[in-house]
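Known limitations

Structure tokens in this collection are predictions and should be treated as such. Users comparing against experimental data should check residue numbering before alignment. To illustrate the layout, the record for IclR family transcriptional regulator is reproduced below. The input appears on top and the generated tokens appear beneath it.
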Amino acid sequence: MPVRAAPAPAATAVLRILGHLARQAAPVPAASLARALGMPRSSVYRLLAVLEEDGWVIRFPETRAYGLGVAAFELSQGYLRQAPLARTGRPVLAALVDRARESAHLAVLEGRDVVYLVEERAPRRPPLVTDVGVRLPAHLTATGRAMLAALPAAQVRALFGDVRTLPLRGAKGLGTYAALRRELTAVRARGYAVEDGEVTEGLASVAVAVRDRSGWPAAALAVTYPAGVGEDGRAALVRAVEVHAQEFSRRLFGAAP
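Generated tokens:
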């Protein structure tokens, strides 16, 4: 069992401030920041002054509010350059394939689409359309449905509420926003998403969202298998995907939400 590092109060307070600012839609006053974090106002002002000096936050004098600074932007760019989702996802997917003996993939949500970052093919399994870099409509895929179900209803409505019909790849699929809304309700109740022949005839998938510490869907893991697998077989695949989604979340965010 890993040894937990000794707490460093100042470092913890700084990280809490930066994390809170990162989750806001606009800069916030120091007093609001102190109330939200339950920290003494004097401590917040002192830490903000240090962060401002080093470029981690910027102060807007007209509104007396604070937002993230250039140093935080540079940190985010470094995060993107290092591609942590793909790097962390590869060994997790490999372990999932070993356990499930079916092909697996990792996807992220971009607007109304999913983009596939990693695919791990199981031995003697056919190639899938979910190759790295492929983009598919989120409402048709198990990974997309898993992530959409983890979003607030208002966010899903903002993405799809103005669409009268949704594109299909064949005869199957969710062709309307109302049908998608019903399916996402079912996904939330089950805890995982299912797709059966809606992307590729004869193949089905189960997927689980990978959530960050706030519960937001950072990605989704899925296993694709031959359609017609019984309930027991699908349940075993779901358990495998759930276990590895939790492991992926732990590696990315430090603890499963």
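For this record: The chain has a mean pLDDT of 87. The longest strand covers residues 217-226. Please report discrepancies through the issue tracker.
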